[in-house]
């Protein structure tokens, strides 16, 4: 499979995999641009199974293991969503009036945007979540897959397109970048948030060490993350269509790392994160969360 970012056809196998319903999904990294993906990618049918109602009801990335669920967690994000909208989105695009969310889940972020004066729209793959957003917030969200849905009625009408924790789940992230370009009005702002598991110092050290030792790590989650990004690869993906690309990296403070991924690893992670956290604050590298902002050019005649 050619690289989704640079179309290079040579990839190295990474020492990690997922096992789901007896099928192995191996980590691969493009030897040219460094983009990481699963080989094979889950099929459309497998994705439909992965995102059926139990994705939000239980087990979402192991939230159940720390005694929480998606709705409880999302309810607690109201204030941070408001702050993010005002400080980060409005400050970059003060004239913005209409905001579209890809992967709107139960509508918590769109509800905060509406409170802040935005006209809102969005799309979400989980029918259960779409129904919840309707009941809980009175929001009308299109139920569908951003990679194939008909977006004709929404094209060109949005000042901001936001995709939080979506790009790691896509089968064709470069294709969705093109779809975002279609959704945005000229001069519009795209805001993407992704986890940076393979951008972290701990992971960057672990990959060559595991390879050297001839060992493989089986990741505990389901194969939800089809792609993994670093600051470099997510920037490059945005630069293909947009301008003024900013990548802001954050590292979780060591005391706030969750126990989701298990016991022994947890303490090793804490120690490495004690180094990683200040390093990211100073260098804007090695973050485990990345927020990317970019603008669609205003000139409609661009090539
Ligand atoms: Zn590549």
Q: Would you mind describing this structure in some detail?
A:
This protein is an alpha/beta fold and 303 residues long. It has one domain: Rossmann fold. 34% of the residues lie in helices and 24% in strands. The chain is built from ten helices and twelve strands. The strands form two sheets. Strands 6-5-4-7-8-12-11 form a seven-stranded mixed β-sheet, sandwiched between helices. It has a five-stranded mixed β-sheet with strand order 9-1-2-3-10. α4 packs across α5. The longest helix has 21 residues. The mean pLDDT is 89. The structure holds zinc ion (ZN). The site of zinc ion has 8 residues, from loops.
CATH topology: Rossmann fold
Total strand segments: 12
* Count of individual helical segments: 10
What is the spatial order of strands in the main beta sheet? Answer: 6-5-4-7-8-12-11
Q: Span from first to last CA?
A: 28 Å
Mean pLDDT: 89
Quick overview of this protein structure:
The chain is α/β, with parallel strands linked by helices.
């Amino acid at each position: 499979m050619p690289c989704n970012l640079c179309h290079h056809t040579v990839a190295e196998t990474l020492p990690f995999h997922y096992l789901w319903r007896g099928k192995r999904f191996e980590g691969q990294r493009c030897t040219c641009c460094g983009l990481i993906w699963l080989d094979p990618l889950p099929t459309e049918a497998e994705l439909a199974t992965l995102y059926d109602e139990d994705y939000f009801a239980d087990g979402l990335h192991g939230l159940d293991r720390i005694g929480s669920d998606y709705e409880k967690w999302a309810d607690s994000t109201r204030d941070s969503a408001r702050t993010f909208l005002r400080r980060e989105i409005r400050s970059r695009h003060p004239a913005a009036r209409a905001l579209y969310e890809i992967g709107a889940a139960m509508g918590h972020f769109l509800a905060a945007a509406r409170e802040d004066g935005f006209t809102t729209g969005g799309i979400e793959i989980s029918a259960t979540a779409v129904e919840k957003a309707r009941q809980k917030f009175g929001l009308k969200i299109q139920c569908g897959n951003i990679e194939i849905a008909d977006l004709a009625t929404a094209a060109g009408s949005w000042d901001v397109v936001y995709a939080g924790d979506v790009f790691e789940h896509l089968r064709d992230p470069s294709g969705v970048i093109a779809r975002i370009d279609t959704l945005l009005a000229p001069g519009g702002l795209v805001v993407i948030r992704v986890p940076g598991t393979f951008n972290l110092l701990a992971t960057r050290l672990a990959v060559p060490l595991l390879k050297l030792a001839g060992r493989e790590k089986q990741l505990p989650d389901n194969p939800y993350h089809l792609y993994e990004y670093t600051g470099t690869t997510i920037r490059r993906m945005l630069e293909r269509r947009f301008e003024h690309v900013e990548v802001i990296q954050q590292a979780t403070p060591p005391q706030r790392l969750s126990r989701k991924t298990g016991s022994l690893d947890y303490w090793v992670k804490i120690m490495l994160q004690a180094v990683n956290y200040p390093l990211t604050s100073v260098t804007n590298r090695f973050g485990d969360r990345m927020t990317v902002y970019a603008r669609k050019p205003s000139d409609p005649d661009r090539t």
